[in-house]
Amino acid sequence: MMSTLKNKNFSLILSGKLVSLLGNAIYHISLIWYVLSLPGEQNGKMLTWIMVLGLAPAVAFGGFIGGFVDRYDKKKLIVRSDILSGITVLLLAFLMDQQLLKPIHLLIATCILSISTSTLSIAVRSIIPEILTEGELQAANASNQFIERLTSLLGLLFGGILISFLSVNTIFLLNGISFLISAICEMFIQYASKANLEYHTRTHSAFRDDFQQTFRFLFQNKDILTLMFVFTFVNLLWDPLFMIVVPYVLKTNFAITPIEFGAVEAALGLGFCLAAIYFSKRPGFLQHHAVLFYSIMGVNTLISLFAIPIMFYTFFSSIKYISIYFVVMLMIAGFFSASLNIAVATHLQKIIPQNLRGKFYGVSTSIGQGLIPLSSVVMGSFIGKVHSYIFFVISCALVYMVLLFVPAVSRLTKHLYEIKQHQEPSRLS
């Protein structure tokens, strides 16, 4: 990790991202608290709409955003994304201070922040391979994962503390300033844009060409297409488990305390951080062909172990510190999940052409996250109607079936192994 941090440009990107994401995490906690504190019975629906609008624009326009990232100067997009986010949140703080804030303002701001944050994320992932050498990519991706999870953990911690001592208006003000500080840090990045200026003047047909070019590349590279299928499938099943079922089970079946609940919620992120630190010091460790298979198997097995205390909760609920079991399981799951994310991110950055990175990350975001809201609604509609352990058993069984019995996944693992074998002699020569 230290070797990549010596790269001034990467350090500036990481510093800006740290400030920006930390402010964003605190903002979201404050926003949820503010919405739930509103009078009336509609705050639950309002919160649902905010959650949907926080994801939907990035999913719907991911491909278009990717096209913009490839077409324009990535440094300028990163800086302007943070400036747009800062101005948006500062306007919310002003409206709240003047007692002019209405629900529609929150919904519009949520849409803007979703698009600006998505643009920032895609631009950062696209610019990293251009400012670092191939040998530094794994450590860079590990550092990137570490920053993302660390800010999430600190956001949970500081957000709750700040709400206790400061008004939501003040927190919004500080958050808006944090975005602008992030933009200032990123202005010092030394980056020569490789974007084709003639490409900027193309008509709206450029977007259609972007999609055609991206999907043509995907269908010509079956391994990448299979990777996208696997990630989409596991996210479709795993995300609702972590976002909906696990909190429901902990609260209703085991009646854990708020402190225990916070520890369990933070455990997954802590596992991510530990993995990021570990693998950043071992460049090349995650290039083994079996990382994809064993990482998914590891996470899936740990998720299946959640079903045991739920199936026999009448016995396990009497155990005083049952939350420790869930903390350990989620921490290890976070470690495996981070190894998977870092390995795949590094592999893709090496094989995707520079002129397609933004478009690819935009399309992959849309496809990978597009079905999560639907699966969350479906799974949430069955909460309380069926035994909770059934969600874990069915989800894990489906993932096992895909890993073990879908031929394309087996071919992917074999092909990655052949690539690895082909690369090793070249390193020795």
TrEMBL record:
Q: Where are the transmembrane segments?
A: 12-34, 46-65, 77-95, 107-128, 149-166, 172-192, 224-249, 261-279, 291-316, 322-348, 360-383, 389-410
| Keyword Calcium among record annotations | no
**Pfam families assigned to the protein according to its UniProt record, in alphabetical order:** MFS_1
* Span of domain Major facilitator superfamily (MFS) profile: 9-414
Cell location? Cell membrane
Q: What membrane topology is annotated for this entry? A: Multi-pass membrane protein
Q: Quote a single Gene Ontology cellular component term.
A: plasma membrane
UniProt keyword terms in alphabetical order = Cell membrane, Membrane, Transmembrane, Transmembrane helix, Transport
Q: Which GO terms describe its molecular function?
A: transmembrane transporter activity
What SUPFAM superfamilies does the annotation carry? MFS general substrate transporter
* Transport as UniProt keyword: yes
Top-level taxonomic group: Bacteria
What is this protein identified as?
MFS family permease
